[in-house]
Amino acid sequence: MMLALAILAIVVMGSCLQRVSGMGLGLVGGPLATLLLGPVEGIMVVNVLAFINAILTTYTARQDVDWKKFSLIAPVMVLGSVPAALLITKIDTATLLIIVGGALLIALGVVSFGRKFVPPLNGKGPAISAGIIGGFTNTLAGVAGPVVTVYAQAAKWPQHVYVATLQPIFLVGGLVSVVAKLSVGAGGFEHVTWLIWPAGILGMFIGLFLGSKIAHRVPREKARILSLSVAGLGALSALIRGIITL
Fold first, then answer.
1. What is the DSSP string of 112-175?
2. C-alpha span between 216 and 230 (Å, rounded)
3. Which one has a higher pLDDT value, 226 or 175?
4. Which of 137, 39, 41 minimizes the C-alpha distance to 94?
5. pLDDT band, residue 235 (cuts 50/70/90)
6. Distances 66 to 23, 112, 158, 179, 180 between C-alpha atoms, Å
């Protein structure tokens, strides 16, 4: 029950931030779920919840989605997901915690400090590359947002298009990641208590409701900084836990 309540709180925070700033559930949920459930089951739970959350947020933001941009990025995510799923089957839990924590910290660093150093990008090649890399990081660490964010910044996406188009990309990313890991035997849900699912879904509805109420009142930059700060602490904790375990 305490675990379910913790997941409820994490998902409420992540879903609310995602509704306000475009990212949040994977960034916040990935590191914290890894600490609570382990690096494999934790990320798989986040992938499933991100998939469900993306269905809801895609519907609410459907008028601003750029489906042409989506069609370049989302279909190729499987090309990155499969290698990540295979990698998970080859390494132990401590090493995986270190890789997940390190990958999250790098991704967060890029989003926080690296976007302004990325040169302008045009054409299909960078979009496809972002999809492949995003599929890899989403399967491994539960986050595709940082990779797509860096590309969207370099490609000069309008803010409202960026926030909306991220959502169906997350939808595909979550589905592809779970299917890839189940297909190669890289994880499962056998050790995940059933209470996680109703808690996560309830948390989504609460988070989306709160997010819709405050989306126009909270500056996106402040919401983004908050989500990155929470995610950074979680990722650092996962990294330290992995090092101690190793």
1. IIIGGGSPP--SHHHHHHHHHHHHHHHHHHS--HHHHHHHHHHTT--HHHHHHHHHHHHHHHHH
2. 22
3. 175
4. 39
5. confident
6. 17, 24, 10, 25, 26
Specify the DSSP class assigned to residue 1. -
- Report domain extents, the chain: 2-245
- Rounded Cα gap, residues 212 and 46, in angstroms: 21
Q: Which amino acid is at 127?
A: A
**CB hemisphere CA count around 28 (13 angstroms):** 28
* Residues making up the chain, counted from first to last: 246
What value does the mean pLDDT take over residues 168-187?
Answer: 86
d(CA 201, CA 180): 23
How far apart CA 229 and CA 235 sit, in angstroms, is 10
| Cα angle for residues 54, 35, 50 (degrees, 5° grid) | 5
Kindly write down the DSSP assignment for every residue of 37-95, as one continuous string: H-TTHHHHHHHHHHHHHHHHHHHHTGGG--HHHHHHHGGGHHHHHHHHHHHHHHS-HHH
Residue 135 corresponds to which amino acid? G
Closest CA to 135 of 96, 90, 105, 180: 180
Closest by CA to 97, choosing from 35, 36, 45, 49, is 35
For residue range 70-79, what is the model confidence (pLDDT) as tens digits? 999 999 999 9
Six-digit token pair at 47?
Answer: 């992938």
Torsion from C-alpha of 41, 197, 239, 86, nearest 10 degrees: 30
pTM: predicted TM-score of the whole model, two decimal places: 0.77
